[in-house]
């Protein structure tokens, strides 16, 4: 059974283990933007697990885990938009602190079937600045399963992109192993304002004190040089800079495809954010976005690339570009992790060990099925998790579907996280990994 939209209440069962799942809004700390890895992944904080599971690793390989409250407090957004499957608006709005942040424009985007429930759950005092929009789906069995948030910082200097794994509900942010990717793009106008402020301060210093003239002029030259460098990066988007903005282009391509003009209101809402994204500089981000959009895609002889814009075929293409044929031959193990299972075909060769495994390998063929390792929780994993059996609501896989593909058991492996002390906190994120050697 797929978990349904929740309004203001926490609907995860009556098991006594729920007492462990309190989401602690750590107001004693003052997170800043420097706590966020730019172009990196954070685990989501689970307060009841303690420091070992949440603090930055001694060797620096694992950043500190952060709660949604800490993420928002670090960014201090003046406007934000959240795309998700399941949203508890009352809980989300409580994460906006200080209180002034709740008065800024906040938009929630969900599938159209969940729109009425979402709107009715928004607290009336905040309804004026909270906007809820629905996404029409082209298929009756489809879902709007995006996990994306965009924030414009309060100082107007940057746009923050957060691609996560969690629904915007307290149990997802407090009882499971979740993660989010964060990237920050500076606006060109922010650099111009910084340059103008620096020159103004310099002029005042020259007038007020002749003894500081040399230092002030030096600062002015440094500010001017920094601004020229920033301008050159921004201007380069029309030439070789396009190659440096691939992350930004990936994000814009997804938003335009997932929320086209035919989608109506949600398209108009998203278009504002597309324009803001295009004004931000993400040239320092080398990561790529592999997104999925609903639709039927066929590869044609004239435009084979069209079918490779999204989904696992997109992953295949990017891996083939990132690694040489010789390097791809050295990849021996391919790991997939997921929280739901659909129909994969009557035989492993129907899709799993054919199309999917080929994409994980970057286009290689004739790969041994034994190289594919899939991670999915067992019944015992669920029973011993923080939520107990209630956690199974987040793991849809019907027995009827399984009876048609029992071969899947030979690929399944259990989740373990002894190093980060998260063994009993179910993983709800779907990374795909390749092991060399």
From TrEMBL:
<keyword id="KW-0227">DNA damage</keyword>
<feature type="active site" description="Nucleophile">
    <location>
        <position position="145"/>
    </location>
</feature>
<dbReference type="GO" id="GO:0005634">
    <property type="term" value="C:nucleus"/>
</dbReference>
<feature type="active site" description="Proton donor/acceptor">
    <location>
        <position position="428"/>
    </location>
</feature>
<keyword id="KW-0539">Nucleus</keyword>
<keyword id="KW-0269">Exonuclease</keyword>
<protein>
    <recommendedName>
        <fullName>PLD phosphodiesterase domain-containing protein</fullName>
    </recommendedName>
</protein>
<keyword id="KW-0234">DNA repair</keyword>
<feature type="domain" description="PLD phosphodiesterase">
    <location>
        <begin position="140"/>
        <end position="172"/>
    </location>
</feature>
<keyword id="KW-0540">Nuclease</keyword>
<dbReference type="InterPro" id="IPR010347">
    <property type="entry name" value="Tdp1"/>
</dbReference>
<dbReference type="InterPro" id="IPR001736">
    <property type="entry name" value="PLipase_D/transphosphatidylase"/>
</dbReference>
<dbReference type="GO" id="GO:0006281">
    <property type="term" value="P:DNA repair"/>
</dbReference>
<dbReference type="GO" id="GO:0004527">
    <property type="term" value="F:exonuclease activity"/>
</dbReference>
<keyword id="KW-0378">Hydrolase</keyword>
<comment type="similarity">
    <text>Belongs to the tyrosyl-DNA phosphodiesterase family.</text>
</comment>
<dbReference type="Pfam" id="PF06087">
    <property type="entry name" value="Tyr-DNA_phospho"/>
</dbReference>
<feature type="binding site">
    <location>
        <position position="147"/>
    </location>
    <ligand>
        <name>substrate</name>
    </ligand>
</feature>
């Amino acid at each position: 059974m797929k978990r349904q939209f929740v309004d203001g209440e926490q609907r995860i069962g009556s098991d006594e283990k729920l007492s462990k799942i309190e989401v602690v809004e750590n107001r004693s700390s003052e997170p800043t933007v420097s706590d966020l890895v730019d172009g990196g992944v954070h685990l989501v904080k689970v307060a009841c697990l303690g420091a070992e599971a949440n603090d930055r690793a001694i060797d620096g390989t694992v950043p500190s885990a952060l709660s949604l409250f800490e993420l928002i407090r670090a960014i201090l957004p003046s406007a934000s938009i959240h795309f998700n499957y399941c949203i508890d608006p009352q809980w989300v709005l409580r994460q906006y602190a200080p209180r002034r942040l709740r008065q800024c424009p906040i938009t929630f985007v969900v599938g159209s079937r969940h729109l009425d429930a979402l709107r009715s759950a928004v607290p009336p005092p905040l309804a004026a600045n909270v906007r809820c929009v629905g996404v029409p789906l082209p298929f009756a069995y489809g879902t709007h399963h995006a996990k994306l948030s965009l924030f414009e910082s309060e100082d107007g200097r940057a746009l923050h992109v957060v691609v996560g794994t969690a629904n915007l509900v307290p149990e997802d942010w407090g009882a499971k192993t979740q993660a989010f990717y964060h990237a920050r793009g500076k606006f060109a106008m922010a650099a111009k304002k910084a340059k103008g402020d620096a020159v103004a301060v310099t002029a005042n210093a020259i007038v007020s004190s002749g003894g500081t003239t040399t230092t002030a002029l030096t600062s002015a030259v440094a500010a001017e040089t920094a601004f020229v460098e920033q301008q050159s990066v921004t201007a380069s988007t029309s030439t070789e800079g396009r190659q440096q903005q691939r992350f930004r282009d990936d994000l814009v391509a997804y938003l335009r495809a997932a929320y086209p003009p035919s989608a109506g209101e949600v398209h108009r809402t998203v278009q504002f954010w597309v324009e803001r994204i295009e004004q931000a500089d993400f040239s320092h981000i080398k990561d790529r976005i592999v997104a999925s959009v609903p639709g039927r895609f066929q590869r044609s002889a004239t435009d084979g690339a069209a079918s490779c814009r999204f989904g696992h075929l997109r992953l295949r293409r990017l891996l083939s570009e990132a690694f040489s044929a010789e390097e791809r031959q050295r990849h021996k193990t391919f790991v997939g992790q997921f929280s739901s299972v659909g129909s994969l075909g009557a035989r492993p060769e129907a899709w799993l060990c054919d199309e999917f495994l080929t994409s994980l390998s970057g286009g290689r063929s004739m790969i041994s099925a034994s190289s594919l390792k899939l991670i999915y929780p067992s019944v015992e994993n669920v029973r011993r998790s923080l939520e107990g059996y209630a956690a199974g609501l987040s793991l849809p896989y019907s027995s009827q579907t399984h009876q048609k593909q029992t071969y899947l058991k030979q690929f399944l492996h259990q989740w373990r996280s002894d190093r980060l002390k998260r063994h009993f906190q179910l993983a709800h994120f779907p990374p795909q990994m390749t092991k060399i050697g």
